[in-house]
Every structure is written in structure tokens, then in C-alpha cells.
């Protein structure tokens, strides 16, 4: 079965150029305990993509920040349920914030800043990442966003 979704992913950078990642809650029903974008999620029916990104920052990290559009990508991957292929239209934004975060424990186990090299090392050591973040990383989207 193919499941289509429209979603946002937000990359939060601090003044040192580090990126905040969230560790998805261990009880999440999709990719639990996987590192992911700083914030993100589904775009509500009729909701503007940028409004969704700002909403997700508030809901998941408890912060308010201006967001800047980075890119729009389409990713297809096996969902957490192996009988489902997810076809995701993903709008990626970036924001600047130095923390602290007040993560929603229903969605986020932890949120903290990493140097890009640390994330590269995490990939090399087979740390679990959400497929959308992993795809964006592999395509260089994260590095390009950091350079903007």
C-alpha cells in the first residue's frame, strides 16, 4: 500500500552553526527512538507549509522562531509498517535559535545541538535516523541549509 503525505521538516541552527536534532519518543508509532529534523510533521488540510513549520516548532520544541524556506523534496520509503510505502512531499525550512528547548514528551525524547561532523559520525556508526532526514542528509540538503 502507498501512503501519500505532505509534511514539513525544520532545521534549527544555533549561532555556533550547530544543528538541533530531536530524538523521537520511544513510544512513537512511527520510527520511535530515531533521530530526526529539529521539528516537523504533517501539514494540515488547507494549511500553508510555512505556517505548519512554525506550528511544529512550537508543538514539538516549545519555541517560536522565524523560518526560511530551504527546499521542497519528494521522498519515497518504507514506512514503520513494512506493508506501507510512504510517498512524502516534504517542505524543508531552517530557523535560528540558541535554545533552550521545552520538548513535548509525547513526541520528543530529547532535543539537542550537534556539530555537522558529529552527525556524519552518527551515520557512520549506524545510528538510527528517520528516513526523511537520512535522505535529506545524503542528498546534501542539510549541508546546503547550514551554508545559507
List the helices and strands and how they pair.
Layout: E1 2-13, E2 19-24, E3 35-36, E4 39-42, H1 49-61, E5 67-78, E6 85-96, E7 108-114, H2 116-124, H3 131-138, H4 141-147
Parallel strand pairs: 1-6
Antiparallel strand pairs: 1-2, 1-4, 2-3, 2-7, 5-6
**Secondary-structure arrangement, i.e. CATH architecture:** Alpha-Beta Complex
* Beta strands, count: 7
The first-level CATH class name: Alpha Beta
Number of helices: 4
Number of domains: 1
Shape type: globular
Mean pLDDT figure: 96
* Succession of helices and strands: EEEEHEEEHHH
Radius of gyration: 14 Å
Multimerization state: single chain
According to CATH, the homologous superfamily is Nucleoside Triphosphate Pyrophosphohydrolase
According to CATH, what is the topology?
A: Nucleoside Triphosphate Pyrophosphohydrolase
DSSP strand (E) fraction? 35-45%
| Unreliable segments of 5+ consecutive residues | none
For the largest beta-sheet, the strand count, sense and barrel status come to: 7 strands, mixed
N-to-C CA distance: 37 Å
Structural class: alpha+beta
**Which range best describes the helical content: under 10%, 10-25%, 25-40%, 40-55%, 55-70% or over 70%?**
25-40%
Amino acid at each position: 500500500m502507498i501512503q501519500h503525505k505532505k509534511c514539513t521538516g525544520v532545521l534549527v541552527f544555533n549561532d555556533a552553526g550547530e544543528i538541533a536534532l530531536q530524538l523521537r519518543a520511544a513510544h512513537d508509532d512511527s520510527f520511535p527512538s530515531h533521530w530526526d529534523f529539529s521539528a516537523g510533521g504533517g501539514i494540515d488540510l488547507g494549511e500553508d507549509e510555512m505556517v505548519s513549520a512554525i506550528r511544529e516548532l512550537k508543538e514539538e520544541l516549545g519555541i517560536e522562531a522565524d523560518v526560511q524556506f530551504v527546499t521542497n523534496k519528494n521522498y519515497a520509503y518504507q514506512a514503520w509498517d513494512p506493508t506501507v510505502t510512504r510517498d512524502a512531499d516534504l517542505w524543508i525550512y531552517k530557523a535560528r535559535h540558541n535554545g533552550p528547548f521545552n520538548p513535548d514528551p509525547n513526541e520528543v525524547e530529547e532535543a539537542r545541538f550537534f556539530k555537522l561532523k558529529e552527525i556524519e559520525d552518527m551515520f557512520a556508526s549506524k545510528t538510527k535516523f528517520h528516513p526523511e532526514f537520512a535522505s535529506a542528509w545524503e542528498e546534501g540538503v542539510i549541508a546546503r541549509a547550514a551554508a545559507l
